[in-house]
Amino acid sequence: MDSEHQSAQGKPCHQHGSSAQAAAVPQQVLMIEGAGCASCVGKIESAIHRVPGVQEASMNFVERTVTVTGEVSADVLIQAVEQAGYGARVTSEESSAELLDEKEQADREYYKRLLREMSIALGLGIPLMIYGLVIGEMTVTTTMERVAWGLVGLATLAVMLVSGRHFYVGAWKSVRNHSANMDTLIALGTGTAWLYSMVVVMVPDVVPLMARHVYFEATAMIIGLINLGLALEVRARGRTSEAIKRLIGLQARTARVFRDGREVDVPIEQVQKGDQVRVRPGEKIPVDGVVSDGHSSVDESMLTGEPMPVEKTVGDEIVGGTLNKSGSLLFKATRVGKDTALARIISMVKQAQNSKPPIGRLADVISGYFVPAIMIIAVISALIWLNVGPEPTVAFAVVSATTVLIIACPCALGLATPMSVMVGVGKAAEAGVLIRNGQALQTASKITAMILDKTGTITEGAPRVTEVVPVGDMDEASVLRLAATLEQGSEHPLAQAIVESAQDRDIELGEVDGFNSIAGHGVEGRVDDCSLLFGNEKLMRDREISIDAYLEQAQSMAAQARTPMYLASGERLIALIAVADPIKEDSVEAIKRLQNDGIRVVMLTGDNRDTAKAVAEQLGIEEFFAEVLPEDKSSKVAELQQQGEIVGMTGDGINDAPALALADVGFAIGTGTDVAIESADVTLMRGSLHGLADAIAVSRATLRNIRQNLFGAFIYNVAGVPVAAGVLYPFFGMLLSPVIAGAAMAFSSLTVVTNANRLRLFKPEDH
Amino acid sequence: MMVINILGVLLIALIVWWFWLYREPAAAMEAGEVTIEVKDGIYSPAHIRLKAGQSLSLKFIRRDPSPCASVVVFEDFDVSEELPLNKARKVELPPMQPGRYPFTCQMQMYKGELIVEKAADAHG
Asked: Could you tell me if residue B73 is inside a domain?
């Protein structure tokens, strides 16, 4: 082992040495197959060195790769390696799809291997067990029986070496490494049973007459059953990653790009940033980009869960993996390879699927001590049988120790949490909900209060001007022109509504001087030499502008869920402009779902109280925070947290970043896929609040599933181990057979995986 | 019988010492990268010593086809990585505070540990 490491760690320096040459001379990496020992390194390196054109060849034994420097084709190198008696292939950066194919291939091979090993073990174990049940006792009394059982013992040893080799090798290596795992228990259990049986056969005199019983059938059966359990588990585990498979499957394999003025089909890996890409109707969009020509509707449901196709035209962003429905589109690739939204989503979902929620910590702590503890229990159990057990004490001691070692299942405990997280996070991704990690998943399931930012979350986030009321001698168009000119530099959604309204009326905007944005209140600046102030009631009061005569009108606008804004020139009010942001179609229904889940829903808005109240009433929300300045959003989160609530905050992920970060779980709601995936605990890919309700439903279902798994695994071990040790014997005369223990152990972890797979059938929209 | 009981107690003591009390000397990390093989139920090397404030790149190569070995989890850093079979997969870790940070498979059967020492200690 040590020499392997030295060669592994020595090599990179060697490679670094040659990297200077690599600037001028090409370098390639070959994957070597069939190199079983460190001595192969020299053979392979010298075989490659003999190839004309090779300047340098260095093999990394641990990675089984060889780095070749020189002007030489890969085919020639592969041939040289093959002639030396090994296999070689070119390595390249593989796409997720290729990696997945390889993983599935490896799983299939492993599955077949386990079934093969199972058949061999059960091929011996089942006849032996039937013999024991039908013919009678498997005892050793005569010389003839000794010879016969001796042969069976050797056959069992062969089974152990062929079908159970991985248990014994794994057990030996981990014990040598001061750690213990499932292999250790199986190896010790089956090894004890076999060794005892061999002692009975070889030197029967050291064992009392009554205890001369052999347990070869137990050894063979246990190895067979556990291999069967592992095989079924590999199958079931494959299904837990179906969601990620579906996402990976969305990636197109080729793209039609313009090269030298012609359209050519190239593999997706060769698409460059800036390439012009053609997508015909019915084709998948290969990478992210901006439409440069054409018009079409695009189905984004596979990523966002949003069923309605989205219209795309010149200047619009399109996302790789979505489906072009109606027209032909030409677009410029803006993100390719690992940078595409789909690739980032896949990597985030994978990461989250492998992370653990805190609920699994206790199980982790227990499994850390589990195996040695079981070994100790087995020794104690054997000692008790030897000291106070009935005759034949030795046989009872061996059976109880073996059964304890075999029945204990650290795997069920270890699998309980990760399997459910795997399925739950995948399920959420299918609904267009990206959960960052296990912690977010668990906290989301416990949320008691949810703060919803109004603009863009509950509403469309695209406000429209509904009324322009000039005050004084100016007409509508003139005041709108002044307001729009002033607001054209502002990013605020309400400002954009004013500018759009002016553009819709073909009003030409002027120029603004001294523009100043007063956060949460409004803006000021000079247009046409007039000093303008545009904003809410508070801004007007702060600047002592008289608005009293128009308050009633403003209040009536607010009562209709519109936001009134005041435009003042100098110290005089010149207009009242109302803007309304329509509520998203399904917000009311989604909020009801949250409330039905027992969650306290609170709306937060920068709007004035009256508008906020009107919107809240339309939504069926009783609580709201109005007139909240952007920087105060997080203090509202803190306020609810102080009341003992576990607070979820939903916002657009950009303006609300501090509040999202402070909340127990921050939900970023995106329209389409243009979302700040990095900033929130949970990202909702579609704009609908149903995504929020789905996220909470999935997280609750997942946590419930984890609890069931953990409970099952704990109970199984807590009940199984004492029964195996023989606690029931004094009362009922019952002692578990090691074979039954083997079957129970094999199927306990399978049960956990199967229960996790049940989550795949969960429909968040029903909850 | 007495002998057997004493042997049993000694066996228990041996299990406790061997699996729980014994601290294995760690492989000190010289360069910023260590290659770890995942095979036969163990990470090798399983114990890696490094200096605080040093970033670390671990290259995992999985040789064990069992799905148990397919993910390595660094719980303290919320980092996990899927390990393809017979291929190197790099895991980058940020500079760390002194302490012991375990890394495991999802089921805690494969176990390894990063031992991060104060920069001054490591020099001595």
From this structure: yes
